[in-house]
Amino acid sequence: MNGRSIEDIKIGDQASFQKTISETDVYMYAGLSGDINPAHINEEFMKKTIFKGRIVHGMLTAGLVSAVLGNQLPGPGTIYLGQDLKFKAPVRFGDTIKATVTVSEKIDEKNRIICDTVCTNQEGTVVLTGTATVMPPKR
Question: Domain of 47: which CATH number?
């Protein structure tokens, strides 16, 4: 099963994925990545900070963008080449995050697409923005 080829993609095409981030998700990510920063796993420590509690790993949030690219737009067979990210607001345990990808540019001769990426929480607050460069699968 292949995703959409560059011939099938238009500027403005959009897809999204939504997930509620659980404590289990954060601990599993911490274990897999080795990122055991107290910001993510130590509530008592974080209560004394400007965040007043634990926050979700930024890269876990960014991973939701990867889910859109690899599963929907362009989809299976896509190769992720690059991403720039800006973390705009903290993600909290229990937040529902919607990752949206919008095609902003096509480079047909190189089989590349550039996508604007944004993640918002259940309140509509933007928590992440960026730009992804991917190589869609061949037809």
Answer: 3.10.129.10
Give Cα separations from 138 to 15, 60, 68, 110 (angstroms).
20, 29, 18, 12
Cα–Cα nearest to 136, from 49, 70, 37, 88: 70
Q: Residue 124, class by beta-carbon neighbours within 10 Å (0-12 exposed, 13-18 middle, 19+ buried)?
A: exposed
How many domains in the chain?
1
Q: Which domain holds residue 18?
A: 6-135
Q: Measured between alpha carbons, how far is 2 from 4 in angstroms, rounded to an integer?
A: 7
Instruction: Give the pLDDT confidence of 13-57 residue by residue, as tens digits.
Output: 999 999 999 999 999 999 999 999 999 999 999 999 999 999 999
Is 1 within a domain? no
Residue with tokens 């959409």: 4
Q: Residue 2: what pLDDT?
A: 85
